[in-house]
Amino acid sequence: MEIKGENISFRYNIDSDWILKDVNIFLKTNQIIGLMGSSGSGKSTLCKILTGYINNYEGDVYLDGEKVNNNGFNPIQLVFQHPEKTINPKWKMNKALNESWNPPKELLDKFGIQQSWLNRWPNELSGGELQRFAVIRALSPKTKFLIADEMTTMLDAVTQVQIWQNVINIAKERKIGVLVVSHDKKLLNRLCDETIHLNIPFKIFFI
Ligand SMILES: Nc1ncnc2c1ncn2[C@@H]1O[C@H](COP(=O)(O)OP(=O)(O)OP(=O)(O)O)[C@@H](O)[C@H]1O
Ligand SMILES: [Mg+2]
Asked: Which ligand number lies closest to the CA of residue 20?
């Protein structure tokens, strides 16, 4: 499978500057690609466009030639930079975890999730603890692409390695394509087949 973004341009308001201008992006399952760029260069915005959370952009995003939308299960899963914004505060973690699939306990152990956390509310977990749930939620057997927007930024170095090792193993096993958004050059060099740069003001690149 492949994601193809063609000539993507976007600005948040009609009278503001373009955040993205004619961006082209191509990602296949089985590829692990890094995305770097200074703060405010539009990385998170591009992630939201690729996963259908932002629709009013110019250009096209195709998944195997079909327009991407967010109705029903989306095979392109986004792990947001800030998990507290995406996990329903009114659901206990057990419910949030099992919303789209039922991850086995073995997987929770691999990601360092303690059983006692399942009975907590999202605001009773740290950002890093909450993000582990967000990662597992995104790894449904139906997932074909994982868009990881600064997914492990809030974790300590050891936990970051542990989480990424598990994610990469799963991605390789299931042939999931991964876009790794990060400011951490070392992390990108270690994980990715190649890294692309999203710069202001010229944002034309190919994967
Ligand atoms: N909802 C919004 N309304 C208006 N402007 C926004 C909105 N969200 C983001 N922006 C602006 O769009 C630009 C790109 O933001 P974005 O979050 O995509 O950057 P980023 O590359 O992910 O940055 P960071 O590395 O800090 O996460 C920024 O200038 C930001 O202020
Ligand atoms: Mg961002």
From this structure: 1
